[in-house]
Specification:
Layout lengths: L23 E3 L6 E3 L1 E4 L10 H13 L4 E3 L10 H14 L7 E6 L14 H15 L4 E6 L8 H13 L3 E7 L3 H13 L4 E7 L9 H10 L2 E5 L20 H4 L10 H16 L4 H10 L4 E6 L4 H7 L10 H11 L2
Parallel strand pairs: 3-4, 3-10, 4-5, 5-6, 6-7, 7-8, 8-9, 9-10
Antiparallel strand pairs: 1-2
Helix pairs in contact: 1-2, 3-4, 4-5, 5-6, 8-11
């Protein structure tokens, strides 16, 4: 008699698996602790979202242990709208919790019209921090990032602006984002000599794209800098959304940050294999993708950008199991490298 194969275990996202104990991780060698998950405001908290929806996600995240909120001057849409939304939420119900919140912002990308509205100049950063504080209605941000190296502005000009922002009390700590390794080394050295060391570096990292290169890793470790990862789900690719085609409501269908051509048969085959490993771990693919980043000791926080309450609530359990066995790591790396 031929036995029927046992059906693969299907994981059903269950927020009840999250027991409310959000881990907090020290950011590099600093004294600042970040929640293992940060709530990212990128393009999901702008004027095309209702206040009620944004308020619900932010307060739900905070009530479930997320104390780190990742913003930038040009998050929206339109530019600045995400910070304005955060300001409204703080004013409405979170102003008494400011001491418990780690609020970050950034400047360096296109923000306003004219020659000074883009890039990493002192003019851009000094103007941006004042504008960001005004939009959010707060006195300081906990971390202020140089959002990028613009390829033109001398590194020492950008770094001195960050130093002066901290010395003026407008930010408590300095962060850097998306810097080439050689410029990162130059920036870290300048900030250390200025006695305002960078405590955190932010870049894109996920199972499909990882910008935490060996060269950057060595630099960050030598300077005691923590790491925060954005885009853990690679615009939704690392979810179950595309395992059986391209849904009408998806980003790939609408051409928003993804296209049909991104969903190749080879990619789908990889995603299905990863999904099988996630199911064996009793996780969704999205949860495993977040947990994979949190297994990295250098990672202080992973930035998630849920567009809905369902997405937010089903990502929370990812922090409950962030350890991978050697066999799991080997299997996952084999899938990713083929």
């Amino acid at each position: 008699m031929q036995l029927k194969p046992e059906p693969r275990k299907q994981y059903v996202a269950d927020p009840s698996r999250y027991d409310g104990r959000m881990p907090y991780r020290r950011c590099g060698r600093s004294g600042l602790c970040l929640s293992a998950l940060s709530l990212g405001f990128w393009w999901n908290f702008g004027e095309d979202e209702t206040f009620a929806s944004c308020h619900e996600r932010v307060t739900y995240a905070f009530d479930h242990g997320i104390t780190t909120f990742d913003l930038a001057n040009n998050y929206g849409p339109p530019f600045g709208a995400a910070e304005e939304m955060m300001g409204r939420i703080i004013s409405r119900s979170m102003h008494t919790h400011r001491r418990e919140m780690v609020i970050t912002s950034k400047a360096g990308h296109d923000m306003w019209e004219g020659p000074c509205g883009d890039g990493s100049s002192r003019k851009m950063l000094m103007t941006s921090i004042d504008d960001s504080l005004t939009r959010m209605g707060i006195d300081y941000v906990d971390i202020f990032y140089s959002h990028r190296y613009d390829g033109v502005t001398p590194v020492e000009e950008t770094m001195q602006a960050l130093v002066d922002i901290v010395r003026a009390g407008k930010a408590l700590y300095v962060g850097l984002s998306k810097y080439p390794a050689d410029k990162l080394a130059e920036a870290l050295s300048y900030l250390r000599e200025a006695r305002t060391p960078c405590i955190v570096y932010q870049d894109k990292s996920n199972m499909l794209v990882n910008n935490l290169t060996d060269e950057r890793r060595v630099l960050l470790e030598s300077y005691g800098v923590g790491y925060t990862a954005f885009s853990p789900l690679q615009q939704g690719l690392l979810t179950d959304k595309y395992l059986n085609g391209i849904p009408d409501y998806s980003r790939a269908a609408n051409g928003k940050h993804l296209s049909h051509t991104d969903i190749t048969p080879e990619l789908v085959a990889k995603l299905k294999k990863l999904d099988a490993i996630a199911a064996d771990r009793n996780q969704s693919l999205a949860q495993m993708a977040v947990a994979w980043l949190l297994d990295e000791p250098m990672t202080a926080s992973v930035i998630i950008g849920p567009r809905t309450m369902e997405q937010l609530s089903t990502l929370l359990p990812a922090v409950s199991d962030t350890r991978f066995s050697n066999d799991e790591k080997e299997a996952i790396n084999t899938i990713l490298n083929t």
